[in-house]
Design brief:
By secondary structure, the chain is mostly helical. It contains 16 helices and four strands. The chain has helices at 2-8, 12-23, 29-32, 46-56, 65-76, 79-102, 110-195, 201-276, 283-356, 369-462, 466-508, 510-551, 568-598, 605-657, 704-713, 717-733, and strands at residues 659-665, 668-673, 682-688, 691-695. The two termini are 108 Å apart.
Length: 734
């Protein structure tokens, strides 16, 4: 600051010396243009100040000695300071003019100037003593600050250890809660899968969702607590950094004190040299030079006083920060108390787990949510087992009913066929009776013919005439042959009728049908027994559900859970969030205020801070809006790309595989073949537990042969679809 002042406007003493040299050309110039004679301008380490101001840009502390020095420089560079400097410049010019006029009268007023110089010298000596006392006071304050720094370091180390330990505990707790959350999420997914099979699983899902929400709220509260602790650690680190800056400031002040002493010694040396050169130089320029040097020293001392005031302001600021830290310690104590309350609530939960975990000896019971989780898992496993058993029994009951219906249909068919066979059997029996009657008639006729033959043979023995005998024998033979031919014809007819009867009996298959009817009756009896067992199992499950309902379980489909509207935890969390937002806004406002002060503005600081905050908020809103627009355009492009690619993918699948796949709703898909004869010929598949299942349609009812072969026996859906494609293609090519 002083160097710039000297370069722009030289001091009055130098001007006076130049004019004196012009007025007195005979004076030996090398005698009084001596570097040792020229008084040195006291500077309070402006290079250190500029260096510290450069370093100040890289720090994050709000209050420090460097900021104070930067603020001094900014104050000097402000418009008010420029006006003051211009006024001083005008005053210096006026003084220069007055001094030019007063040069002619210097010899007459020399004695008065000597008296004035003595008075000013004594006043400056007194001022120097006062400055020394101020320096001693500052050294005492620095010593107290060092003691406070040591105490704050000890407190910081203790607080850091406590925060690290609490942070470790909270991190462990968070990890444990995250594991519980993942486990509950897995259990929730399993329960969602079982929910499709049994409506009773909905109640358990709601309970698990409640527990999941509670665990999520606890995790969120713990995360907020960790954030608060981390902010406290950051504040303590900032305090430590500020203390280091104060220590650095103290060292700089000591260096400045040493430099002042050195400059004071130099000033004394210059005074001695001035006294030695007093005879070579006129008294007035010497006195004016010394007055200028003392004025510079006075200005420097004033700067030192200003720095002292800045240090006092910093001390006040540090005290206010200490009060803020004490308030934060009180808040930390309150948080510890809330932590104790939460631990007591956790103990209540554990006691609740112990109370509900019945049937376990106390020496084996784990006091905590682990055992409650184990108990819940066992109950869930039992419930899953029961639901699985119920589903299996239901499936078996359905299959038994289907088999029963099939058996009944087959039995009806068999009875109808038996009735038809009975009718045919009656017809055959009637035919057999008629044939038997005819056979009796034929046999009687045969017996009559045989009796007649016997009678003829007896008559032949009686007759004696040979001629008559020969003629009669020939007649009888011809007659016997004719009768034998008729008997053979009747015999052939009887054999044919017996063969037809055997064929009719074999063709009717009465024995096979009787055996089949017997088997069907046995299957019906077994299905009836299985049905009775399933009914007993259903009754047992209903009794168990009633027992669980008596224990306190409820059906979420029929009952509702009431939540408290004025929840204390929710209100505390909302208050904490509001407080955090308020503190964040206050922190942003203070940071912006520090930036404004560093920029050198001293007037309307609050208004400027508000304007900047409003501009930053609007700028942030505009940036966010631009980001939202960019994301929306990206999303729109992705949607368009997905539409085109999905359409192309569906067309390629349709051309390569021969089936068009349409998603009707969640987990329900419709397949239409390329070679289908009509649009109504389609198949429906439903995803259940990751496996597709064929649903019944009018078209699938015509594919019973393919279903039995490829789905029931081979268990292959691709082979089933390819077989349908080949069959449809064959029909079209025919």
């Amino acid at each position: 600051m002083f160097e710039s002042q000297d370069t722009e406007d030289p001091t009055c003493v130098i001007k006076m010396l130049d004019e004196f040299r012009q007025c007195n050309p005979t004076v030996n110039r090398p005698n009084f243009i001596d570097m040792a004679v020229v008084p040195t301008i006291l500077q309070f380490d402006d290079c250190v100040v500029s260096h510290d101001s450069k370093k100040r840009k890289h720090t994050d502390s709000n209050v420090s000695v460097d900021t104070a020095e930067d603020s001094n420089i900014s104050v000097l560079a402000s418009p008010w300071e420029t006006r003051r400097m211009k006024a001083e410049l005008a005053e210096a010019k006026a003084l220069n003019a007055s001094l030019e006029e007063r040069i002619k009268k210097l010899h007459s007023v020399r004695m008065e100037l000597e008296l004035v110089f003595d008075n000013e010298k004594t006043s400056f000596l007194k001022q120097r003593e006062r400055d020394r006392e101020i320096i001693r006071m500052l050294e005492g304050q620095i010593a107290t600050l060092r003691k406070r720094e040591v105490e704050s370091r000890d407190e910081f180390s203790q607080y850091r250890q406590s925060t690290e330990s609490s942070k470790c505990k909270l991190e462990k707790k968070i990890l444990r809660l995250q594991e519980e959350y993942t486990h509950l999420d897995d259990r929730f997914k399993q329960v969602e899968l079982t929910h499709k099979k049994c409506a009773a699983g909905v109640r358990r899902i709601s309970e698990l969702e409640g527990e999941l929400k509670l665990s999520n709220e606890e995790v969120a509260s713990l995360k907020d607590h960790i954030k608060l602790l981390e902010e406290k650690v950051v504040d303590v680190s900032n305090l430590k950094y500020q203390l280091e800056l104060v220590e650095h400031c103290c060292t700089q002040a000591q260096q400045k004190i040493k430099e002042l002493k050195l400059e004071q010694d130099k000033g004394e040396e210059t005074r001695e040299l001035l006294e030695k050169q007093h005879h070579n130089l006129m008294r007035l320029p010497d006195l004016e030079r010394e007055v200028a040097s003392l004025r510079d020293e006075n200005r420097n001392l004033r700067d030192a006083v200003r720095n002292k005031l800045v240090l006092e302001e910093e001390v006040v600021d540090l005290r206010s920060r200490q009060a803020g830290f004490e308030l934060r310690e009180q808040k930390l104590a309150q948080l510890d108390a809330s932590q104790g309350h939460l631990e007591s609530m956790l103990e209540h939960w554990r006691q609740l787990a112990r109370d509900h975990c019945l049937g376990v000896p106390p020496e084996k019971a784990m006091a905590g949510p682990e055992f409650l989780r184990m108990r819940i898992e066992t109950l869930q496993q039992k419930e899953l087992q029961l639901t699985a058993d119920l589903g299996d029994l239901g499936i078996r009951l359905k299959t038994a009913q289907q088999a029963k219906s099939k058996v009944e249909m087959e039995l009806d068919k068999a009875t109808k066929q038996i009735e038809r066979l009975q009718v045919t059997n009656d017809d055959q029996s009637k035919l057999i009776k008629r044939l038997q009657k005819r056979l009796l008639l034929v046999s009687r006729e045969r017996d009559s013919y045989r009796s007649q033959l016997d009678m003829y043979e007896k008559e032949l023995t009686v007759t004696s005439s040979s001629a008559l005998l020969n003629s009669q024998q020939q007649q009888q033979r011809s007659r016997v042959e004719a009768l034998e031919k008729t008997v053979d014809g009747y015999r052939d007819l009887v054999m044919k009728l017996e063969a037809d009867l055997e064929k009719a009996v074999k063709g009717s298959g009465g024995i096979q049908f009787s055996e089949r009817i017997y088997k069907l009756e046995e299957e019906r009896n077994t299905l009836q027994q299985e049905k009775e067992q399933l009914m007993k199992r259903r009754d047992e499950l209903e009794v168990e559900l009633e027992y669980r309902a008596l224990k306190g379980d409820f059906n979420p489909m029929k009952s509702k859970v009431l939540h408290i509207r004025m929840n204390p935890a929710a209100t505390v969390e909302a208050q904490r969030e509001d407080k955090l937002t308020h503190l964040q806004q206050e922190c942003n406002r203070l940071q912006e205020r520090v930036r404004v002060l560093e920029g050198g503005q001293m007037q309307d600081v609050t208004q400027e801070v508000n304007l900047r905050l409003a501009a930053s908020s609007t700028q942030e809103v505009q940036e966010l809006q631009e980001q939202v627009k960019s994301y929306e355009t990206k999303l729109q492009r992705l949607k368009e790309a997905f539409k085109t690619t999905s359409q192309e993918y569906r067309e390629v699948c349709y051309m390569l595989l021969g089936y068009k796949i349409d998603r009707i709703k969640s987990s329900l898909y419709r397949l239409s073949s390329m070679y289908a004869e009509s649009q109504d010929d389609y198949l429906l598949f439903k995803l259940a537990d990751g496996n597709p299942e064929l649903l019944e349609t009018p078209y699938s009812a015509t594919l019973e042969q393919f279903i039995n072969l490829h789905l029931k026996h081979q268990h292959s859906i691709p082979v089933f679809l390819s077989a349908i494609t080949i069959d449809l293609f064959g029909h079209q090519t025919e």
